[in-house]
Amino acid sequence: EHLLRWFRRLLQDIKANRTGMPDLIQFFPEQRRYRMIEVKGPGDRLQDNQLRWLDFCAEHGMPVEVCYVQWAADDSVCVSSDLSDLQGALCPS
Fold this sequence. Notes:
Layout: H1 2-12, H2 14-17, E1 24-28, E2 33-40, H3 48-59, E3 64-71, E4 77-83, E5 86-89
EC number: 3.1.4.1
Catalytic activity: Hydrolytically removes 5'-nucleotides successively from the 3'-hydroxy termini of 3'-hydroxy-terminated oligonucleotides
Keywords: Hydrolase, Magnesium, Manganese, Metal-binding, Nuclease
C-alpha cells in the first residue's frame, strides 16, 4: 500500500514531486519492515521539497527518518537521527 501511495503522489505531478524523496531505503527482512532515510551532512538543511515528502510519508504512516551526519574530532563519523517526535543519538556526546 505504501508503494501505491508513493507512486500515485509522484504521478500526480511528476515535475513537482520528482525531487525531494528520501535518499535511502533500509530493509529489515526478518521483521518484514523498512524505513526511508534522508541524509544530511554538516551545514546541510532540509529543502522545501524534502519537507513535503517527509510530511507525506508521516501522514501515511510510512517510516521515515532524517539522519544528520557530522565529522567527529578524531575523524570518525558521528550520526544522529530524528524520527518524527523521537530523537536518538548514535554517537557519544
